[in-house]
Amino acid sequence: MAEIMHGRKALSSNPLKSSAPLGASLAYLGMAGSVPLLHGSQGCTSFALTLAVRHFKEAIPMQTTAMDEIATILGGPSNLEEALLNLTKRMKPSFIGIASTALVETRGEDIVGALKLIVAARPELQGVKIVYASAPDYDGAMEDGWSKATAAIVEALVEPAEGAAAASPFVNLLPGVNQTPADIEELVELIESFGLGVVVLPDISGSLDGVVPDAYTATTFGGTTVQQVAGMSRALHTIAIGEHMRRPAEILRDRFGVAGTLFPTLTGLEPNDRLISLLIALSGRPAPARLRRQRSQLVDAMLDGHFHFGGRRVAIAADPDQLYGLSMVFGGMGAEIVTAVSSTSQSPLLARVPAAQVVVGDLSDFEDLAAAAGAELLVTNSHGRQAAERLGLPHLRVGFPIFDRLGTAHRRLVGYRGTRDFIFDVANIVLANLPHHHPEDFARIPGEEAHDGHAVAATH
Amino acid sequence: MGQNLHTRIADIFNEPGCDKNVAKEEKARKKGCSKPLTPGAAAGGCAFDGAKIALQPITDVVHLVHGPLACEGNGWDNRHASSSGPMLYRSGFTTDMTEMDIVMGSGEKRLYRAIKEAISKHNPPAVFVYATCVPALIGDDIDAVCRHASEKLGTPCIPVNAPGFVGSKNLGNKLAGEALLDHVIGTHEPGAMAPNSVNILGEYNLSGELWQIKPLLDALGINLHASITGDARYHLVASSHRAQVNMMVCSTALINVARKMQERYGIPYFEGSFYGISDTSEALRQLATLLVGTGTDAGLIARTEALIAAEEARAWARIAPYRARLRGKRVLLYTGGVKSWSVVSALQEIGMEIVSTSVRKSTDNDKLKIKELMGGDAHMVDSIPPREMYATLKRGDADIMLSGGRTQFVALKARTPWLDINQERHNAYAGYDGMVDLVHALDRAISNPVWSDLRRPAPWDDAPSLSLAAE
């Protein structure tokens, strides 16, 4: 059990979090023909958009209600209405996902009520599905925004199942914000190999996976369709990844009667064994032969890799679910999580992180703690690069944003194969940074007590 | 938001140094010059973004953003303004306001504590405190907190009042300039000033461009006192009122600073650019002329001409191998403000053809300059909708697009060469050497063999290709 430590600082230095409205926007980007709309000042959208573009290296549709001072003081419904009309006319979306921001939430607007009136009064909006999630910046981080938006989509668009069961059986897959397009592709392939169909929500593997369409598109290209979401009530089962996806999975269960299984993480041997067992049970089919091979490859990777994990002092900073998932892999391979920093404090998983304590904080906490603990490897998003440089430590980039590396969308961390690749990535970083030993490393004079209690590995 | 800020904004809109403003009728002038934003069709950063961009290159201070997470959390460490020394400016500092701060109204207390923590940990020469929408809405008085903190803690705390909702990035630049005028410039008396000291306004040292210019100034015995702000140090900006001449390189961004420094301290200014060979030469000439006009030995003019002759000859010789390859190549230039004319003239110098250039952020003066450069039928466009831009590029109407990151993927998805000329770029293109580098980069982009490979369809692909899945 990790002890959860809350900082008392007034100053956040080098933020670890990205904002909740950004997380909500990314979830909306997993819908087909979609445009996310942030209800706030134009900067709210601009900053989120720029960061998302730097991460995905893709054009990203995202709009703003452009609240100016007067609109903020007088109330924003007219800006919201104008924005919906303008972007419907210009971009012709089939889906608009609205997220609030700190600005409009501070003013305390009744956005849900206003939205109802707008949609009722405006025939131009009839062809567009409009979903709203409250996601103020001052509450939570990316995982929270993603979860709230997905829950809002489920609540608004899933239709009760009527009549006979679906002709071909399928499952709902609810990936978390930490799953890459490659992760989603991997899981879809896996589920389909059991003869099951799958509806993914939100499906950024269609919209943010880096393809070059033959025509210009103003909205997302690919993603979950409104019709697919409507039919999610007819699924055999829901598979949700990450504690933050509990809410949408529960809505599917409680309101639409679709049972579900929540996997806190799908990186690692044991969680994937459970996933395969579930798919066997759901499909009534045995595991395909190639899964046995993949499992065996992972076992071999763990054999080869454990030398480089064992005893390594690792520092991790991430959103709660990702922190939990990564620390279970590192811990499970024998590494010591000497520093664990979480962006927010809400998740029940934090207490289960295999570390003495989890600090809810920022990247300056991370840097200070990692230095004090003698960490050998930093694991966090690209914003950790300055800390890595100052501490002279290798930096494994995970999560969001990763803006100084290419191919992030195609990195796979789930499944047997994703876990195998991840183990090699980590082992290769360790191998690339192995210190060369010198006589002084072993300079204790036999027969005498050492001056300090323990030998510290040379940090070159 | 206080009455102060309203007055301040009205004042900026009344800028007599702005040609666009001067040309307006009294009534239009009162309305201000920020175009109203269209909800659902707006792009670009907010005033806070603009203020931060203008001030962040002061490298040795703490830049503390008072607001909820997104304002700093989504935006820190995102530009390549380089520093030759301190790295403090690259850290992101924010009060990360919580719901509790907002409901309980404890924002000001949190801000004060944050300032105190920042000073005790980093001991900076100053703390710049940025207002954002939420604290402005709930009435946090950052001026008062900064005043109190400056007194109590003995470190200057500079309030920067440019919450996002007051307007555009450009207005934010100017509000940042006002903060410098009110609280920084003139607050520090330097010891002996080096002779021939000048300031450069609106140069942010992106990718180190200032360092492409500095050797030219050094060679002429011109001392670059403060770049406002690029690779800047607080005390140099604070003592910049003792410089002899100001050069303004990003025309609309900090014109209020240039004009008011002339008014208050009698420092003459001119607008120039270090993009392109003849623009660089012209800028050096003007610097020399203004310096001589303010007491520098007249020999500087001859020395400047000699340096220009030598540098121009060297640059042209280095460009010569590329001229034949680039002559007649068509460029779609999509950028704002000062960059349009300075880059237009630079590209024309090497014989490239400008298909069209955007002038959406340009002043009338900028547009006039473009017209002069491109002849009567200047293909000036305000803005190009992405769909149209894509179609233009897809048709092959241009051989390359030069723009900023926002439109990068429109070009790339149309399988068209693209070069970054905005603030996020990694390459430096200023001065004579920078121009040679730009030409080299253009050639590298256009003549990359990858384009023919990329445009070739899959030979096995008879079926309809990836098309829009219109649901």
List the main descriptive attributes of the protein structure presented here.
heterodimer; A: 460 residues; alpha/beta; Rossmann fold; 3 domains; 4-stranded parallel sheet; 17 helices; 15 strands; B: 471 residues; 5-stranded parallel sheet; 11% strand
Description:
The complex is a heterodimer of chains A (460) and B (471). Chain A is an alpha/beta fold. Chain A has three domains: 3-10 and 294-431, Nitrogenase molybdenum iron protein domain (Rossmann fold); 20-156, Nitrogenase molybdenum iron protein domain (Rossmann fold), CATH 3.40.50.1980; 170-288, Nitrogenase molybdenum iron protein domain (Rossmann fold). Helices cover 42% and strands 15% of the residues of chain A. Chain A is built from 17 helices and 15 strands. Chain A has helices at residues 20-28, 42-56, 69-74, 77-91, 102-107, 111-121, 142-157, 181-192, 204-207, 226-230, 246-256, 269-283, 289-309, 320-332, 363-373, 385-391, 415-432, and strands at 3-6, 12-13, 34-39, 63-64, 95-100, 129-133, 170-174, 197-200, 237-241, 260-263, 313-318, 336-342, 357-360, 377-380, 395-397. In chain A, the strands form three sheets. Chain A has a six-stranded parallel beta sheet with strand order 1-13-12-11-14-15, with helices on both faces. Chain A has a four-stranded parallel beta sheet with strand order 4-3-5-6, with helices on both faces. Chain A has a four-stranded parallel beta sheet with strand order 8-7-9-10, sandwiched between helices. In chain A, strand 11 (313-318), helix 14 and strand 12 form a beta-alpha-beta unit. The longest helix of chain A has 21 residues, at 289-309. Chain A is globular, with a radius of gyration of 24 Å. Chain B has 471 residues and is α/β, with parallel strands linked by helices. Chain B has three domains: 2-34 and 43-183, Rossmann fold; 197-315, 3-Layer(aba) Sandwich (Rossmann fold); 327-424, Nitrogenase molybdenum iron protein domain (Rossmann fold), CATH 3.40.50.1980. Chain B is built from 21 helices and 13 strands. In chain B, the strands form three sheets. A five-stranded parallel beta sheet of chain B has the order 11-10-9-12-13. Chain B has a four-stranded parallel beta sheet with strand order 2-1-3-4, sandwiched between helices. Chain B has a four-stranded parallel beta sheet with strand order 6-5-7-8, sandwiched between helices. In chain B, strand 9, helix 16 and strand 10 (353-358) form a beta-alpha-beta unit. In chain B, helix 14 (277-293) packs antiparallel against helix 15 (299-326) and helix 15 (299-326) runs parallel beside helix 20. The longest helix of chain B is centred in the middle third of the chain and has 28 residues, at 299-326. Chain B is globular. Chain B starts with a helix and ends in a 16-residue tail after the last helix. At the A-B interface, strand 2, helix 2, strand 4, helix 3 and helix 4 of A face helix 4, helix 5, strand 2, helix 6 and helix 7 of B.
